[in-house]
Design the sequence.
């Protein structure tokens, strides 16, 4: 006699949900601070309903069947929302794997013939395994989206162009310079030069961890573009070890004005704009008094 | 035929490019400008390209050529008002226009040309003084 696996599951829908919930809650790794029991139950109920309703004898072998679109959609939604909420892969994995376990347990209760049980379990396992793989794909995609968004945010926030004086812009660069970032840095800088009409730009690289020939080339490009716009570009914040690397790599920065600190770059900028910074008269008096 | 006007302002020539240059126009400009420098014995050439939004390697080369030719005729060239996109394109094309002076706008370009002229005169005077002594 052929056992109808789908009708068994359909009849046992309530039992499946209860057993699955029990299995999930008994797992010590459950992150109950991230999701309430109620939410978990409604998520689980939705998935069990969709799965059992769309399952029939024809599509059990074929997880790509369009009958499962709803199941896949729910699974995708759950795993993406879990990825964003910061669930660990283990927790998300356990969610779907415990459903498989539950279904097999139900089959075990219902089918007495050992051989038949094995065959049906295998079919169901295969289907659930495919769903597991799908869940993980979506989970990782969700995590990657988070990472991509953060990368975009970092590129946006890490390149502020600061107007330090009338006609002087400073641009502190934090983190590694790759070609995509250089592009953003360069565009921001040139745009700001046009807006403020500044004639001097200071690129401060004290936050750049390493300078290799590629980074140096990017810097040279930024400097050339600034010069073409009609402004002067100073590179400051070169640490001793970076100076060593630059010379050892044989990179020629002799065409560029370089300064050790932002302060000395600013001093140079003041000088070329013929500005003078002085201690005010009263302060000088006070200073002299304090000294004697 | 379309031509780009070259204006004489005291010892300087002012060229304002208001349209995107195509090759023929750029070549004509190069020729007209060199003739004009010779005719007026100008000391400086100011090219305003603030309205130019598209640039290619040919245009970059023409700018470089104009600067080199003017220098042969004893005139300084200053390119002013380059758009950020144009600057980035030129750098990416590997044409940093090293021989050309640049300034942000026409006003600053004029100031730069004047300071260059003063500098040259001072040098001349110093040489003259040295000659006398």
Sequence:
């Amino acid at each position: 006699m052929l056992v109808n696996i789908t009708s068994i599951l359909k009849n046992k829908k309530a039992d499946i949900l209860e057993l699955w919930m029990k299995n999930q809650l008994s797992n010590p790794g459950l992150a109950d601070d991230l999701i309430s029991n109620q939410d978990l139950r409604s998520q689980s109920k939705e998935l069990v309903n969709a799965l059992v309703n769309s399952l029939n004898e024809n599509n059990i072998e074929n997880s790509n069947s369009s009958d499962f679109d709803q199941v896949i959609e729910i699974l995708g939604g759950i795993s993406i929302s879990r990825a964003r909420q910061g669930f660990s892969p283990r927790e998300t994995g356990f969610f779907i794997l415990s459903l498989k376990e539950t279904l097999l347990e139900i089959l075990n209760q219902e089918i007495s013939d050992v051989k038949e049980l094995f065959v049906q379990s295998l079919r169901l396992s295969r289907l659930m395994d495919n769903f597991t793989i799908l869940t993980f794909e979506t989970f990782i995609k969700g995590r990657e989206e988070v990472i991509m968004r953060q990368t975009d945010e970092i590129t946006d926030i890490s390149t502020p162009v600061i107007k330090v004086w009338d006609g002087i812009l400073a641009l502190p660069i934090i983190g590694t310079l790759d070609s995509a970032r250089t592009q953003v840095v360069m565009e921001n800088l040139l745009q700001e030069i046009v807006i403020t009409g500044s004639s001097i730009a200071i690129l401060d690289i004290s936050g750049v961890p390493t300078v290799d020939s590629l980074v140096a080339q990017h810097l040279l490009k930024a400097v050339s573009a600034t010069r073409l716009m009609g402004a002067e570009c100073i590179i400051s914040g070169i640490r001793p070890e970076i100076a060593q690397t630059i010379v050892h790599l044989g990179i020629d920065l002799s065409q560029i004005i370089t300064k050790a600190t932002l302060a000395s770059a600013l001093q140079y900028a003041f000088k070329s704009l013929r500005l003078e910074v002085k201690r005010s008269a009263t302060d000088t008096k006070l200073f002299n008094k304090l000294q004697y | 035929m379309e031509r780009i006007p070259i204006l004489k302002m005291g010892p300087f020539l002012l060229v304002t490019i208001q349209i995107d240059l195509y090759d023929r126009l750029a070549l004509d400009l190069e020729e007209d400008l060199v003739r004009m420098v010779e005719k007026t014995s100008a000391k400086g050439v100011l090219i305003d390209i603030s309205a130019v939004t598209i640039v290619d390697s040919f245009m970059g080369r023409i700018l470089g050529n104009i600067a080199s030719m003017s220098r042969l005729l004893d005139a300084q060239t200053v390119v002013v008002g380059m758009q950020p996109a144009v600057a980035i394109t030129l750098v990416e094309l590997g044409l940093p226009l090293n021989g050309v002076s640049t300034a942000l706008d026409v006003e600053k370009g004029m100031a730069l040309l004047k300071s260059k002229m003063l500098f040259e005169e001072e040098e001349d005077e110093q040489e003259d003084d040295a000659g006398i002594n």
